[in-house]
Amino acid sequence: MPDFTDTLRPSQPDGPTTLARERGQSDLSVDGLSKHLFPADGFLERQARILHILQKEPLFSKEKQQNLSRVERFKLGLARAKLLRRMTDQHRWDHEDYKMAQYLVDDVSPYFLHMEMFVTTIREQASEEQRAYWMPLIESWKIIGAYAQTELGHGSNVRGLELEARWDSSTKEFILHSPTLTASKWWNGSLGRVANHAIVVAQLFLPKPGSPEQYVSHGPHPFIVQVRDMKSHQPLNGVVIGDIGPKYGYITMDNAYMLFDNFRIPHSAMLCRYSSVDPSSGTYTKPEQPALVYGSLTYVRANIVHHARLVLARAVTVAVRYTAIRRQFQDRDSDKNGPEMSVLDYPTVQIRILPLVATAFALHYTGLSMQNVYRATREDIESGDFRSLAHMHSMSSGLKSLCTMLAADGIETCRRAMGGHGFGGGSGLIQLNNDYLSKPTVEGDNWMITQQVAAYLIKKMTDAVESINTPGTDETDARFKEFIRAKRQAGASQPISLSNDQDIVKSFELRATALAYDAYEQRVLKKQNWNSLLIQLHKLSKAQSQSILVATFFKALSTDQTLSGPTKTVLWDVFRLFALYTMENEGYEFFRCNAVARSSLNALPSRVQGLMARIRPHAVNLVDSWKIPDYLLDSALGRYDGRVYEDLYNRAHRLNPLNRITFNPNYWEEEIVMGTGENGRNILSKL
Amino acid sequence: MPDFTDTLRPSQPDGPTTLARERGQSDLSVDGLSKHLFPADGFLERQARILHILQKEPLFSKEKQQNLSRVERFKLGLARAKLLRRMTDQHRWDHEDYKMAQYLVDDVSPYFLHMEMFVTTIREQASEEQRAYWMPLIESWKIIGAYAQTELGHGSNVRGLELEARWDSSTKEFILHSPTLTASKWWNGSLGRVANHAIVVAQLFLPKPGSPEQYVSHGPHPFIVQVRDMKSHQPLNGVVIGDIGPKYGYITMDNAYMLFDNFRIPHSAMLCRYSSVDPSSGTYTKPEQPALVYGSLTYVRANIVHHARLVLARAVTVAVRYTAIRRQFQDRDSDKNGPEMSVLDYPTVQIRILPLVATAFALHYTGLSMQNVYRATREDIESGDFRSLAHMHSMSSGLKSLCTMLAADGIETCRRAMGGHGFGGGSGLIQLNNDYLSKPTVEGDNWMITQQVAAYLIKKMTDAVESINTPGTDETDARFKEFIRAKRQAGASQPISLSNDQDIVKSFELRATALAYDAYEQRVLKKQNWNSLLIQLHKLSKAQSQSILVATFFKALSTDQTLSGPTKTVLWDVFRLFALYTMENEGYEFFRCNAVARSSLNALPSRVQGLMARIRPHAVNLVDSWKIPDYLLDSALGRYDGRVYEDLYNRAHRLNPLNRITFNPNYWEEEIVMGTGENGRNILSKL
């Protein structure tokens, strides 16, 4: 309905004017930096092509989805996920195309586990015969599968799972049984309402050789199990399944609970590439390389590390554009009748956003490096060489912990830096935040898995001490030996003065090495209880992972041939900002480790502020380089054209369904909707 | 529908067993500590009485509300709010009773602004005649009012508001007009769908004396304006109003936008206790004490400080109870077949939760102190003495910033410490988190308002330097003078060695004083630009506010006569944990300020870990002392009886409406709900 607000415009200078000036004042090449970030892998081409197709489909409109209930939102998510698969067939999308479409639509797909853990587990842990049977059914989506490992009572401690798979030698079947409530499967995505099959991880119980009435557990093993009827889609007899209900995020995902009551599955259900049960004798064959079974976990962690950069890039894109446009107060020390300042010009806004702009780049280079390490290690393993496995496992654990923490906290920091409108639905950060908050917990809790880094580094330090007189076998070993030798000579290494970029890297490495030595000393020499050291070990993992981020960023810029001129200059400042800001926040630890000179530490606040002042004019171009499309941002505050206020008003005035209802404000009347008689009792049925 | 899961129980030891042991192992007196926390103000008695009444009303059931859409949830919120007012009449509740009921129901009431800012503004800024007219209408809820100050383009900078109130001397009316889109009122609670009146803050434009065709702005002023028809509840002609749409939280609040098109209001609309316009001459009278106009802001900030303790107490109640019950892994260094450990026994879980348990107590004592300072200052002001106003304003600003940050971040830290189930809807933290995340922004952005603390302290330091030879006029002045004298004599004060609790307090005060001197030096002596100092000033405010929290906690325990024996002993450890944990996180700043000896700083990690080990056995009793009822917690993880897994399963299996729908998983069929033909097109109408 037209009204007098249709012709109103925001006060000047408006968003488009401001962003045009921001983009014009920087000589950083947006396209050059974009090509550097997304070189030959076709990411940007694919993004443009898929986006064009998606935007023609009304079902993918995000305009009002925040208003839907859980049930409605799930229906929408499922309808979209099915349509995406039909479009995959229709447009002959490859897997990368399909993943791009999911990324842009930005719903967690109810088919996600089918496409990831279910098919991966079959591929990696099923025998050839099993694969031949199941893969065609999976790839055609004739069956839909999920991955049911975590239980109500056990997540991290997989060995503690309670669900039992007991071999019945008389019928040659396994009997799945949940002896307790805590044995219920829990959190298993895609299974609550959608899947009809699942990989079910259960404790394998076999009769004890010689005394067949006694059963012995052989630990958790995967089984492929049909759990719902293929026609009625109801759970089979002896199976109880459902969705666990609303969560922080993942609104379109049907995370499941599932219990079994003496439910029989055939011998062929057990995935038997690595371990197996002989059907005639009931004899168990165990895997040759137990570590291989956990390969997919490392793969998932490496992917999470690589993904974090795009999450944070999205948040800083919104925050930088909006805080450039948002104006509040004149400069206190200058003309009080002058124009109000962009809030991004306040150092207190810069200190929250610009280090995160830098962090997105740091995550980018380390994400790439992590992918390369993963690929190289897989190749080693395929050729029978397992030596690099421990390094990759440690690296992926420490980085998963640190990078997801940086991205998750970064989203919220950006949101708060945007003041009131950051709290509104137009920020585009609500769903991103709600979904991403799962990442510090899933695939290895961020605090728990840092033990794996520490254990690896303590082992490395022990080896270095024992072989101190032989040359370093790798970079870490060489660094550790140098540290030990310096320590034996001087009692302590000399603090570093940060006079150049290489020094910054060295300082991070020295601190991580010193903390590794401390941990070695406590655990190996002083035989301290492991659990009593956990906080210290967590700090060690963080220091090591920060050191990787800084060193990788430095190496990427040092060896890069694609950037030049002002773009390269700005990127070096971005590197310094990331490193020095990180160091400032951990100042006392660097000092205690003798890893940096006191004068350099005292200078950090002003160096950081100086770097921010240098980077500030390029802030909009820096975030533009990530080329995150408006459709994905779904943000009034962060849109490319800067029409912040027009978009906020449009969402409120034209798109908000609450405004179509006239409410009755009189407390003495039970009626809620004016003139209809609808009252509280109508809602009671939903409570 | 009964099934085999009805008889299943969690594995042993279950929640009730664990909590019974936790409660039994501590000699801390829960009732003694409760009486100490809530002494004679009747809080606990009122809580029990109101809770008993509320729990009988089905409309207040929280069991399924997470599943509702925004529109449904708003209807529910309005129905509840109306019922609460009817119950107030029926049970003859006083205002404290009503507020308790709201607190327990835990919806942000759509009438909140009517009950707070609307009535407060009338009370404080209306003339006696205006009050006589409006107060009966307000108190009977015959009219419902809101407070419309913030605009789309301006929040913090109130002087930059764009809405105009232009005096028309011919008709003796004001003309409200929104010249731009950014002049739209925005965020104004209770106004989007419910209120029919509002305090509207607009730039007062009056004809220039002598040249009446020219208008001069006299800054923002409040007007009381009817905005909706009393019968149809539609906006009046010339007014556009609506709800701004979904946000992070505040789902039951109708935050508004509102614009005016040359909308005429009578002369009597201007609230004229402090400033007024003479209707015949158009002459302006300005307020005698402009600061008085902002009194209600300080009041609101003081309340936010006081409220923070209950928010954090709620989060730690859930976190402590759940992490005591949750078990994962055996102790790596002991019997691997022994029972799994409570996750609260891991130092890496303790370090996230126990300092927050301590923080809740720190917030409590400072919240009480802030209330006392507010009351004393109001009394001073009523008697015409304005000297304490600046101190109170500074204190409330700094504490609002720090305390809301501690509480908001604390909720999320607790959530992550609870692993997977922390991400679930059974945590009870989702709505708390979503609602509370507004607090770092509202009533003065947490980063912006720290300038007010810094400006106050720089002024105090300047005064101290100028009057160095006269005795201190108050505690701060005396401390500043001592610091200046020591500085002049020795060049620097001696670092403190933290050998007793008083030393800890002194160390915090010394650091805040040193930072205040730095800021004075930069701003007053070196004439640095204010904005260039903002980050430093923010750190100063944080240091000052932390010092207040530590000193107030210390003083409360030192002077307390109500606690004794083990309860008092544990509380002293809780004090030390709060202070030393805070210090460790700011270690380098304390070191740089020479506020603590290096050996003491190096000892902090082990002291903190030792304190946590001492407090750990009392953790459940400590949180029990807050007496937060299960109805308010609404948490499977945090319930008093410890039936965590039974409750999670009940919510999933029996209460989740998604499980009543059977979905069609076949991607080649458009149908979404099995057997009904319902498909994506049915949802399109809501997009």
Characterize the structure shown:
Chains A, B: Keywords: FAD, Fatty acid metabolism, Flavoprotein, Lipid metabolism, Oxidoreductase, Peroxisome. Chains A, B: Belongs to the acyl-CoA oxidase family. The structure is a homodimer of 687-residue chains. Chain A has 687 residues and is α+β, with helices and mostly antiparallel strands. The first copy, chain A, folds into three domains: 38-107, Acyl-CoA dehydrogenase/oxidase, N-terminal domain (Butyryl-Coa Dehydrogenase, subunit A, domain 1); 122-288, Butyryl-CoA Dehydrogenase, subunit A, domain 2; 296-622, Butyryl-CoA Dehydrogenase, subunit A, domain 3, CATH 1.20.140. Helices cover 51% and strands 9% of the residues of chain A. Chain A is built from 23 helices and eleven strands. Chain A has helices at 15-25, 30-37, 43-54, 70-91, 95-105, 112-125, 128-139, 295-325, 347-382, 389-417, 419-423, 430-436, 450-466, 475-490, 501-525, 534-559, 565-585, 587-592, 598-615, 619-624, 630-633, 644-653, 680-684, and strands at residues 145-148, 164-168, 173-177, 185-188, 197-208, 211-226, 239-243, 256-260, 263-266, 276-277, 284-285. In chain A, the strands form three sheets. In chain A, strands 1, 2, 3, 5, 6 and 9 form a six-stranded mixed β-sheet that branches. A three-stranded antiparallel β-sheet of chain A has the order 4-8-7, with no helix packed on it. A two-stranded antiparallel ribbon of chain A has the order 10-11. In chain A, strand 5 and strand 6 (211-226) form a beta hairpin. In chain A, helix 9 runs antiparallel to helix 10. At the A-B interface, helix 4, strand 7, helix 9, helix 10 and helix 11 of A face helix 4, strand 7, helix 9, helix 10 and helix 11 of B.
